[in-house]
Amino acid sequence: MAAANALIEAVPSPAVLARLRELLAAVPDPEIPILSVLDLGVVRHLRERADGSIEVGVAPTYSGCPATPVIKADIIQALERDGFRAVAVDVLSPPWTSDWLSDEGRSKLAAFGIAPPAETVTSARHLLRPDLAIACPRCASTTTQKLSEFGSTPCKALYRCESCLEPFDYFKCI
Amino acid sequence: MTPHCRYVLRLADTSLILAQRLGEWVGHAPALEEDLGLANVSLDLLGQARMLLTYAGELEGLGRGEDDLAYLREESQFLNATLVEQPNGDFGQTIVRQFLVDAWQLELYERLQESKDLRLAEIAAKAVKEIRYHLRYSAGWLIRLGDGTEESHERTQAALERLWPFTGELFTADDVDREVTDAGIGPAPESLRPAWSARVGAVLSEARLALPQAAPFNWHGKQGRHSEHLGYVLAEMQSLHRAHPGATW
After folding, report:
1. How many helices (H) and strands (E) does chain A have?
2. pLDDT tens, B91-136?
3. In the 8-state DSSP scheme, what is residue B186?
4. Which of B40, B47, B135 shows the shortest C-beta gap to A150?
5. Could you give all domains of chain B from N- to C-terminal order, each with its CATH number?
6. In whole angstroms, how far apart are CA B31 and each of A52, A63, B37?
7. Bridge-partner residues for A157, per DSSP?
8. What is the pTM for the complete model shown?
9. Which candidate in A62, A63, A169 is best for mutational testing of the B interface (most B CBs within 10 A)?
């Protein structure tokens, strides 16, 4: 029965939840450090296991994103530093989408010079439609050109502004 | 090994070997943007392969993990489609191979999202979003190359003629496919062909490329009978692990 008991999970108390959110809001994404893991929308659930440890459900952004194991390790470290015992588990379904970026996250991206996703994932086939005009995060011009579908990390594409001539990253809509 | 396990291993190996082939481009692509593009596609495929290999190991039930399956199997035990092990050739040939696979994987993984195997359905739902992006990339380049200069057009057409005979395998069912289809785990391979042909035909036409003649011979990589190229891919991919068994980063 001990094994079965370990699976019983509960929602942490409001005070614990608030503290956990505070801690997670200070854990940066390793590749886009202006975003916290909460801004990125990868934290899918917080549960208290029967043994008192906190289980954090983490959705990988892209299947092969090398940041995923780092994110999980950073989350565990941040919680343990505050006295929690923590476990991070993968949550594959539903798959992560850029729609889960927080509003605050979108503003932070734009302020940092990365254009946030221009649309929401409405239909499964939307990526086969022609591109929307992406606004330059520096000068707001929509006269921009896509240089590559892929940028410096799996979640970004590479653009250039034709008005101010600056290259910039676009956070892909997926 | 059950047909179910073999089927998952086929999906895993196809993604793994294509990821390895694309990885050969890193540092060698014609421009930095394409270096990043091919590496990113490779990384997605590798991530998908890892999830599928782990699952295949669990289905097999012999305690083999993703590394055992990737690094310690012989050539005849790899069950990837023969198309993905074909050499990179020039950038055009890599793009043709990628496009033909992307268009097939898109139809396949969309259908796998409805698999009765819920684990496979979850992996497919994740993968299909990435595959859609890969197809945008490869179709975009195929059009630029096919409808580009005389030389890019000729080279791309030649690559298409060369790789086309390997596509038959993707749509030809064998006993493993039939068992998996009957169990509601995977779609019948031939049922993917109409949508694939329509998409491929539309892009080829925009690229001003001619549709090759159907080939009379089918390859059988998914049964472990490969072209001469897979051995070289494995020799490179497995060399470190075989020289230092159990090594970790």
Report:
1. 5, 8
2. 999 999 999 999 999 999 999 999 999 999 999 999 999 999 999 9
3. S
4. B40
5. 3-210+218-243 (1.20.1260.10)
6. 53, 25, 10
7. A170
8. 0.91
9. A63
Mutate to test the interface with A, among B22, B33, B143 (most CBs of A within 10 A): B33
Cα(B69)–Cα(B76) distance, integer angstroms: 13
Compute the distance between CA of residue B134 and CA of residue A149 in angstroms, rounded to an integer: 9
> Residues in chain A with pLDDT < 70?
1-9, 122-130
CB A154 within 8 A of CB A64: yes
Indicate yes or no: CB of A124 within 8 angstroms of CB of B128: yes
* Separation CA B86–CA A1 (nearest Å): 53
Q: Which residues contact B199 (CB under 8 A, 6 or more apart)?
A: B103, B106
Contact criterion met (CB < 8 Å) for A174 and B133 = yes
A128 to A20, A148, A155: CA distances (angstroms): 39, 16, 17
- How far, rounded to the nearest angstrom, does the alpha carbon of residue B50 sit from its chain's CA centroid? 14
Work out whether strand A167-171 and strand A114-115 pair parallel, antiparallel, or are unpaired: parallel
State which H helix or E strand residue A171 sits in.
strand A167-171
DSSP letter assigned to residue B246: T
Q: A20-36: buried (b, 16+ CB within 10 Å) or exposed (e) per residue?
A: beebbeebbbbbbeebb
pLDDT at B32 exceeding the cut of 60? yes
Question: Which residues of chain A from 51 to 80 reach within 8 Å of chain B, CB to CB?
Answer: 60, 62-66
Question: Could you tell me if residue B175 is left (phi over 0), alpha (psi between -120 and 50 degrees) or otherwise beta?
Answer: alpha
What domains lie within chain A, and their CATH numbers?
Answer: 2-90 (3.30.300.130), 101-171 (no CATH)
DSSP B23: H
Burial class (CB in 10 A: 0-12, 13-18, 19+), B74: exposed
| Rounded distance between C-alpha atoms, residue B10 and residue B15, angstroms | 9
ipTM over 0.90: no
Q: Under a CB-based contact definition with an 8 Å cutoff, are residues A147 and A166 in contact?
A: no
A80-121 tens-digit pLDDT: 999 999 999 999 999 999 999 999 999 999 999 999 988 777
- Mean pLDDT (chain A) is 88
Chain A residues in contact with B106 by the CB 8 A cut-off are none
